[in-house]
Amino acid sequence: MSDTRTAPTTEDRAAARRVAVASALGTTVEYYDFTLYSTTAALVFDKVFFPTTSSAVGLLASFSTFFVGYLARPLGGILFGHFGDRLGRKAMLITTLLIMGLGTVLIGLLPSYGTIGVAAPILLVTIRLLQGIGMGGEYGGGVLMALEYAPRNRQGFYTSLVHIGTPAGVLIPVGLVSILTSAMGDAQFQAWGWRVPFLLSIVLIGVGLYLRLRVSESPEFQRFRAEAESHRVPVARVARDHLRDAVASIVAKIAESGLFNVYYVVALAYATTQLHIPETQVLIGVLVACALECLTLPLFGRLSDRIGRRRLYVAGAVFQLVLAVPFFLLVDTRNPVLVGLAMTLGLAVGHGAMYGAQAALFANLYPVSVRYTGLSVTQQFGATLGGGLSPLLGSALIAAAGGGWIGVVGYMVAVAVLSSVCTVPLRRGDLRSR
Q1: What tens digit of pLDDT does each residue of 283-315 get?
Q2: 3-state secondary structure the chain
Q3: Which of 391, 387, 285, 269 lies closest to 343, judged by CA?
Q4: Considering only CA atoms, which of 192, 200, 168 is closest in space to residue 297?
Q5: How far apart are CA 317 and CA 309, in angstroms?
Q6: Which residues of 243-258 are buried (b: 16+ CB within 10 A; e: fewer)?
Q7: Distance of CA 222 to the CA centre of its chain
């Protein structure tokens, strides 16, 4: 779709920034929820909710509940994408924020296995399913509000601001967990300390809700609704008219999402269980890397507007392919500085390059009439196959290798190559190809 808008005024740019901030805060809540869960899953959930199994099996069980949330994301993407394309973006953003945030609070209140027995993991899985549905609808709406407010030649930059919510959503809960694990012993943290960050998410919910209620509906969507009728079943239109781009972008997404969780979830579990590195030491490395990615993401977003989104996305994947072996060699040193360097190269550079270019690349594959649905399908199926599976696969590959990481490296190389190949044909999403 050609861009017929006039040059943006100062007021337009200010509105675009406000929308990007509001969307980024929602993304922060989104990743706060999921990151907090993955962190506590790696550290204590095997003991709190699955204490009757061995430590290895308990860890796999806790990561399985992590994957359950990802399984529900495609359903949430289709559901909220449907209504987002028919009714508008704003209402969906408010609904998904409440679903995700309140789910996190409920996990913080959930009794342990020792208190209510098997009902505890059952309730945990139920909450995770609901959170997954909410998260499935959150991303598309947040990105599209920023994209559809922004001038076309700055869409990479403005949508990358939304993506800052991802490392910020890691930074905040990891920082809280680091403080709590340092301030209290393992017994206290396991008994009740892990619940504190879950309950504190109510603050983020309040701020996010306040900002989102003050944002107007996407102007591009409003223009579309004034000129044409929405499709009755948007997902059917995506399957009929945009199947090739949808499939290619889903596979292209796998490396970005999967490798992010390798650096964070898998590496955290590997470093603490196999290398016996203190948890706080590894978490500090993650904190530094995420703080730096908050700075690199808008730089990569702006770079994607200049050199092309596909080119930068593939470059980020290739960088992570080359990094795979050095990453684990750095972690194996047990040196805090080198562990932090490994995390920084993986998250702030490799992942940052892909993630900075991703939103504008994938969103522009679809016309405005089905864009919420199309982007949600791409994002959520790709994230489920990537980030949802990588902690399970990584843990299983490490166990199969007797505690070694060679199998994980094979996975990293494979998904980086596969995603790079599938990014090349996505010309419609690249500004430089228009």
Answers
A1: 888 889 989 999 999 999 999 999 999 999 999
A2: CCCCCCCCCHHHHHHHHHHHHHHHHHHHHHHHHHHHHHHHHHHHHHHHCCCCCCHHHHHHHHHHHHHHHHHHHHHHHHHHHHHHHHHCHHHHHHHHHHHHHHHHHHHHHCCCHHHHCCHHHHHHHHHHHHHHHHHHHHHHHHHHHHHHHCCHHHHHHHHHHHHCHHHHHHHHHHHHHHHHHHHCCHHHHHHHHCHHHHHHHHHHHHHHHHHHHCCCCCHHHHHHHHHCCCCCCHHHHHHHHCHHHHHHHHHHHHHHHHHHHHHHHHHHHHHHHCCCCCHHHHHHHHHHHHHHHHHHHHHHHHHHHHHCHHHHHHHHHHHHHHHHHHHHHHHHCCCHHHHHHHHHHHHHHHHHHHHHHHHHHHHCCCCCCCHHHHHHHHHHHHHHHHHHCHHHHHHHHHHHCCCCCHHHHHHHHHHHHHHHHHHCCCHHHCHHHC
A3: 285
A4: 168
A5: 12
A6: eebbebbbbbbbbbbb
A7: 28
Q: Which of 385, 365, 380 is nearest to 430 (CA)?
A: 365
- What whole-number distance in Å separates Cα of residue 246 and Cα of residue 345? 29
CB–CB of 63/45 below 8 Å? Answer: no
**Whether pLDDT at 8 is above 70:** no
Residue 363 reports pLDDT greater than 90: yes
Alpha-carbon gap, residue 385 to 392, rounded angstroms: 11
CATH topology (fold) of 12-433: Growth Hormone; Chain: A; (1.20.1250)
Torsion angle in degrees (nearest 10) through CA of 97, 127, 178, 260 = -70
C-alpha span between 377 and 246 (Å, rounded): 7
Q: How far apart are CA 323 and CA 352, in angstroms?
A: 14
Task: Give residue-wise pLDDT tens across range 60-110.
Answer: 665 666 667 777 888 888 999 888 888 888 888 888 888 888 888 998 998
Burial grade of 95 (CB within 10 A; 0-12, 13-18, 19 or more): middle
Q: Where are the domains of the chain?
A: 12-433
Distances from the Cα of 208 to the Cαs of 163, 165, 186, 196, 389, in angstroms?
15, 12, 32, 19, 29
Reading phi first (left if > 0) and then psi (alpha if -120 to 50, else beta), residue 88 is in left
Is the CB of residue 93 less than 8 Å from the CB of residue 211?
A: no
Nearest to 31 by CA among 367, 270, 297, 247: 297
Predicted confidence (pLDDT) per residue in 191-213, tens digit: 888 899 899 888 888 888 888 88
